[in-house]
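the three lines:
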Amino acid sequence: MEKFTIHARAKATLSGKSANAITGVVASGNLEILFERKGDSLDVTVDVMTASHGYQPVWEAVIKDFVERVSPGGMHIAIHDNGARPDTVLLRLMQGARLMEAQS
Amino acid sequence: MIPENVMNEPSWYESSARARINGLLDADSFSEILGPVDRVMSPHLALFDLPPAFDDGMIIGRGSIDGRSVAVAAQEGQFMGGTFAEVSGAKLVGLLRAVARSAGTPQAVSTVFLLLDTGGVRLQEANAGEMAVSETIRAILDVRKAGVPVVALIGGRAGAFGGGGLVTACCSHIIISEQGRISVSGPEVIETNKGVEEFDSRDRALVWRVTGGRSRVLLGGADAYVKGDIASFRKSAAQVSNSVPSFSLQTLEQEQERLEQRLQAYGGCRDTPEIWTIAGLPTPDGIADLTEDEFIRLLAKEGIRHDAR
Amino acid sequence: MMPDNLISVLFPEGHSLSSGAENTLSGQARSGGKDVEVLGINNGAPLGPETAIILAGHVLEIIKSNSKAPIVFLINTASQRMTRRDEMLGLNEYLAHLAKSITLAGASGHRTISVLYGTAAAGAFIATALATQTMIAVDGAHPSVMDLPSIARVTKLPLDVLAEKAKETPVFAPGVEPLAATGAVTEIWKLSDGQCAERLSVLLADEPVSDIDTRDVLGASRGGRKVALEIAKRVEDAFLHISVSEKAG
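prediction for all of em together
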């Protein structure tokens, strides 16, 4: 397992009322992502645990892309990855953000 | 084959455990116990350099179906094969014990639904997993003794294999789809141990004939057969009445007789068409080729009805 | 073949056990001045539908007799029998039926004890020894879920790496000690120490123990399952404290 944390700063906090949300499954080529709302800050933290070693730069690029698209300020994001491709990672991040933006 | 008319419905087989729970229960009625945020995870996978899951592949809680309070547990078959392990097992056992304890109190539930999707014991934590299966069986029987039915829903990718096959047969009532498979040793395990001439695990038609939902329900290994969409599972689950067999000497004596008769009648068969021929079914070689509606009609006419499990 | 040595060590006060079809044995014995029912599976035979249904039938007859006599199971099986025919016939139902029958005996006032003197693996282990209230391992006992070479195949780890890991944790290694650590095996006895008959009569003299499954308590105290008990309790507490908001009906 390789573990690292990526920090980012969003332009805005993520709207919505959900306190947390989970998306995806730790299957081969897939990942699960847990979103938790941690206050009104613009900070975004992403804890990554991955079975594929040596891809931290790729993760950083995907997270940067995601943060620019969604502005998920105040999110703590935890990832368990079992070899998902970058497009799958981005898809799951977007799904998670949508769940967090729900109004109830 | 999934028939066209259910293609557009969310499929049980294709869905995640969480999606199955959401489709089974009344909207927004599910309250999860020890959910992902609690991070109750396997302490053993790190030794094997495997990623854990926030829920260890076991999602438990309570909710309602048509307004009736129920308990539910779902295995995520895509994570480590939906296996019984120390944490996943303890979550299930704790839920079942709570149901038994709460019977007759305001906290009671009417039914327990087990959405099994499992290859059996997680070998990386084999001993803890084996114990989890044994404790689950005992806890299921305690729930049934307390008068609460335990219903298994089988139709996931991983099937109900190994200890999962035994757990299934300990439930009061079993709902299965064509894609559902129940067995102890999986075809691959038998092939590995006994050779390809004993069981060719790559012969998918054979695997389905031996372990699949249609054969199970025809022979009495399952009680209700549904099309493979989530809505059909929900409908069948909502119909389970409290008239399912209690856990008693009488029930087990009836089961003894039922299983003895099966062995006597079909013990010499090697493949299911031989069984269906002896049983006098109209199309013994074509059971797999029937459409879902045709099969359901056949089942209504020829299926084995019993009240002993 | 009957386990003659084991039987004479456990039941010096006498017995009338005989072997039956499909590698089974059955009969009565005396222990501590009490009548005891004895059932068994011999010869390390794989557990198939025939053996399971014979044993379950005996158990149900005993429950029906209303004697409340203790039942001692002498276990030397293998794994579940691995054939296409057995699986087709619903082996899972036969094994579950045996486990249910033994569990029902325990719940109906029969003290149930298994004495494991050979192998027992996977589904056969769950359906027999693990279904009793108390499991004793004696000389020759080798319980397992799966042997290490098979685990190596499934986990895709080299056997020597796996054997090395097995030393660090009892959680997956086969054998009496690792399984005792998880709470599966209650006590380990030595047949040659002259105390087995006495120990058995003491166990059988126990008032029908409250039929509560405390193997996770044992597993926690022995360190073989460090978290199972605590998690099960947390779930129970949470379940009993969720506010019930039933809609109509």
